[in-house]
Specification:
By secondary structure, this protein is mainly alpha-helical. The protein has helices at about 1-25, 30-35, 40, 55-70, 80-90, 95-145, 150-195, 205-230, 235-245, 250-270, 280-295, 300-305, 320-325.
Length: about 325
């Protein structure tokens, strides 16, 4: 019985909602005047109206856009070559040439995928333009032969608008497509330079990369430990976990870092801030030397968890093996 009463009550509420919907239609002008500016503009007989710009002011903006469009050809991409090479490629990767090569490849692959999507979109849009042209020609013919000029004229205008929208879309996208080519060329150049300057062979493969990984992570954990000590005077939990994964003893690396910091402080106090003893290369040497000291520590971790061989050759891409199998 309660259920029936509940259903009846719901029906009554629904009926009330339906009846009240008439208020929406009765108050349509008021609601439109609140939610849009349509009635305000329509009262003056204009649906699309400017309140600040007239034709002369728009012409000033149009003339200035010539220079803006020219300068846009300098960009058309997210980052400059300087940003890409000093930040994108070196972010958490500056100690491993193979890591930088991988970052180059990842960036090139991203641009390649974006380029593929945009190129096929342009090809489709060019076909779309041809189809719109055919529609426009047919509508023009119908306009000449038919007495219903108004309806055909509106369809013709819509197709012409569609044509120019598609055409300008293709034109505008070319700046960004060219920017994509710039990035491709820049990262390819960086790839070639890193490979050449680090004596990496042309036929390097997955094994080459894997063999560098343990030392990279050891060095990276030491770098993070150094940053922790500089910021807080101690190691944070995340860094200690990272060091532990690579088999590095917390206290030992902490002592080495504190000792290095004390030496740097001594050099500055005795030689001044302009001393050339402390620079980027000197700091990198400290990280390299410390990483070399712990570079085999990861083997203790493998032994502890029961792994004999860290790298399984059977599941690696090997350039020389692939050539032999062809």
């Amino acid at each position: 019985m309660n259920i029936e009463n509940s259903l009846v009550k719901q029906d009554l509420n629904l009926n009330e909602v339906v009846e009240k919907s008439d208020d929406l239609m009765n108050s349509l002008n008021e609601i439109i005047s609140i939610s849009t500016r349509f009635l305000e503009e329509s009262n003056e007989g204009k649906v699309c109206k400017f309140y600040t710009f007239d034709k002369d002011k728009l012409n000033i903006v149009a003339k200035n856009m010539v220079e803006i469009n020219r300068v846009c050809r300098c960009f058309g991409r997210k980052n400059t070559q300087v940003t890409n090479k000093l930040m994108t490629l070196t972010m958490l990767n500056d100690s491993s040439p193979y890591r930088i090569l991988r970052q180059c490849i990842a960036q090139i692959e991203n641009r390649r995928m974006a380029l593929k999507e945009n190129i096929f979109k342009i090809l489709k849009d060019k076909i779309k333009l041809e189809k719109i042209k055919l529609k426009i020609d047919k509508l023009k013919l119908c306009f000449e032969q038919s007495m219903q000029h108004d309806d055909i004229a509106l369809d013709l205008q819509l197709e012409q608008i569609n044509y120019y929208k598609t055409l300008t879309g293709i034109s505008d996208s070319m700046v960004y497509i060219e920017g994509c080519f710039k990035d491709l060329a820049s990262f390819q150049d960086a790839y070639n330079q890193v490979k050449k300057n680090n004596n990496i062979p042309d036929n390097w493969d997955e094994l080459s990369f894997e063999e560098e990984e343990a030392r990279f992570h050891t060095r990276q954990a030491i770098l993070l430990a150094y940053k922790d000590v500089m910021q807080n005077g101690k190691l944070n939990l995340g860094t200690m976990e990272y060091l532990s994964q690579m088999g590095v003893h917390y206290h030992k690396v902490l002592h080495l870092i504190q000792d290095y910091i004390n030496k740097c402080e001594f050099v500055i106090q005795t030689s001044g801030m302009k001393t050339k003893e402390l620079d980027y290369n000197q700091f990198q040497k400290f990280l390299d030397d410390t990483a070399d000291e712990f570079k085999n520590s990861y083997k203790q971790v493998l032994n502890k968890i029961g792994i004999t061989d860290m790298i399984n050759m059977e599941f690696l891409y090997r350039e020389n093996l692939m050539k032999d199998n062809l």
